[in-house]
Amino acid sequence: MSTSETLTVGTAREPEPEPAPKSHRRKGGSSWGRALRRDWQLYSLAVLPLLFFLIFRYAPMIGNVIAFRKFEPGGNLFGEEWVGLRYVKLFLNDPTFWNVFTNTLILGGLTLLFCFPLPIVLALLLNEVRRRALQRFLQSVTYLPHFLSIVIVAGLVMQITSIDGPINAFLGYIGSEKISFIQDPDWFRTIYVGSEVWQTVGWGTILYLAALTTIDDQLYEAARMDGAGRWRQIWHVTLPGIRPTAVTLLILNIGTFMAVGFEKVFLLYNPLTYPTADVISTYVYRMGLEASNFSYAAAIGLFEALVGLVLILSANVISRRTVGTSLW
Amino acid sequence: MTTHDMTRGYRVFQWFNGIVLTLVVVVTLYPFVNILARSFSSQTAISAGEVNLIPKGFNLTTYQIVASDPIFWTNYRNTVIYTVVATIIAMVMTTSYAYVLSKKHLKGRKFLVGVAVFTMFFSGGLIPNYVLITSLGMKNSIWAIVLPNAISVFNLLVMKAFFESLPQDLEEAAAIDGLNTYGILWRIVLPLSKAVIATMILFYAVSFWNSWFGAFLYMDRSDLFPVTVYLRNLIAGATGADSYGAAAAEVTQIGANIQSVTIVLTVLPILVVYPFVQRFFVSGVMLGAVKG
């Protein structure tokens, strides 16, 4: 779309971005008027993006009311009649729900446990590589998996872990029993977290490496003067230097804790591995889109989103109080 | 490196570091090499578990089978079309909003930022989104893929940070010379922002190229699928066959080989382009990161 189109749409709607809330106060009202007169072209650029957020982000949030209303496919977007907390009570009494809830916590916890600290370790190791070209090569290689479609990652995982795949070839070579990894619920968590580490750790180092370059060399100088060896320098200079980055990423990770990679679980699991692999989001998918219990699934999905929101808000508050870094 | 650092402990560490990083590289690259080897190998060698880094029983039969499937090429073409259209729309939307957000004097700016940032922490969820897209009649259309993902808030914030770092004086001078906001954005700001624009195009293009779930949800006709959904259906089909046991072993084998070939063909464009664009990605993320 061209700028001129934005313009025509924009001029008609330019007051929309914010309804002048202070208009009852004379001074406030006129300052809004002034702002609109002066910046109407800027506001007009915001109109389409605002419509985007309104329709594709905020409307679905409101659409969650179908969790409290009976929804019929093809019927009203917001459901037909109020049923109160019926669907919430239903899922709280649903044993499958508690199973997928536990699975979500375990998978989310394991992912956090491995995928948060490992990039820091790798970044520290990469930072010790003194040859620039070599360092750049190592970075290029480790970033690569980040750019693959999750479908391709799932395909690679399936091939590597398949009965005729290299892992089983190795097991056969050392004389062990072959394992049908992808069919075995005991292996799902390992496969999931392992492939997650494979895909994300390299890319995860990028922000830390950026933070490392901003640490003042004089600090290392000073630490050496004080007689600090390599380890002490890392402990007293490097780690504090990347702490703000680490905390920020930790908060973000905690926020996505509940939404453990739906797509990957969905691609990798099968009815045999449901006992360990089925998570809230995949259960929502099956309940809602396969079994057409839209309202029930929406209630579970809303629960998941709310827990995620609470987690990130609390992580933010805790980190602001304890280490003084926060997202806002 | 000063001699002070060359203690014994440090040398040991350097060795240890070298070994660990070599392992990391091997583990990262192994799946790629293995899949490539499998795609050229014979069924018998694969099922015997003999294929590792080098193809065994070299043949191109499976490549011919995949290449002769017209649906594969249709889906490949779809992926290209979806990626191009979606990236263009996403760029227009993201650039214009990021530019607005970068204007510190703008009244209501905090509100406009908040509208975007809040969606990073709370979202409508699968079901309401599905109901919305179907009610809007976007099923089986490209818009179901493009419009709901027209702005990535992460990209938006990176661009905003970049625009904020541009010298304000230039824009003021342009305004005095009689350019309006659109003119300033188009003729002054965008030409100065080539680096960040390139990065954002790459970010969006890769994410649209790789996406599959939207198409999987909202498209029922196989001639509309992107190639990722084609691949997903292959994989899902093969797992199904896997669990049927020995009787279907033959089918599974062929399926597995076709999977390898399809994975190779799907990943190829990214592998080819990657060395050239990788630099942009890195500087782009750094851009957003250092600003904090």
Automatic annotation (TrEMBL), chain A:
The superkingdom listed in its UniProt entry is Bacteria
The answer to whether the entry has keyword Membrane is yes
Tell me where in this chain the ABC transmembrane type-1 domain is found.
101-315
The subcellular localization recorded is:
Cell membrane; Membrane
Coiled-coil intervals, chain numbering: none
The record's section on InterPro entries has: MetI-like, MetI-like_sf
Is Transmembrane helix among the key words of this record?
yes
Question: What is one Gene Ontology biological process annotated in the Swiss-Prot or TrEMBL record?
Answer: transmembrane transport
Keywords, sorted A to Z: Membrane, Transmembrane, Transmembrane helix, Transport
Q: How does it sit in the membrane?
A: Multi-pass membrane protein
What would be one Pfam family of this protein?
Answer: BPD_transp_1
Q: Where is this region: Disordered?
A: 1-31
- Segments traversing the membrane: 40-59, 100-125, 137-160, 201-220, 241-262, 294-318
Cellular component aspect of the GO annotation: plasma membrane
Family affiliation: Belongs to the binding-protein-dependent transport system permease family.
Q: Tell me what this protein is called.
A: Putative aldouronate transport system permease protein
Which organism is the protein's source? Nonomuraea rubra
TrEMBL record, chain B:
PROSITE patterns, per database record: ABC_TM1
Q: Does the keyword Ribosomal protein apply?
A: no
- Give me any GO biological process, just one: transmembrane transport
Compartments, record wording: Cell membrane
The record's annotation in InterPro entries points to: MetI-like, MetI-like_sf
Keyword annotations of the record: Cell membrane, Membrane, Transmembrane, Transmembrane helix, Transport
Instruction: Give the CC-aspect GO terms.
Output: plasma membrane
Membrane topology of the entry: Multi-pass membrane protein
Q: Which residues cross the membrane?
A: 12-33, 80-99, 111-130, 142-163, 184-209, 258-277
Locate the ABC transmembrane type-1 domain: which residues?
76-265
Query: Main location per UniProt?
Result: membrane
PANTHER family documented for this protein: ABC TRANSPORTER PERMEASE PROTEIN MG189-RELATED-RELATED, POLYGALACTURONAN_RHAMNOGALACTURONAN TRANSPORT SYSTEM PERMEASE PROTEIN YTCP
Identification of the protein by name: Putative aldouronate transport system permease protein
Annotated organism of origin: Nonomuraea rubra
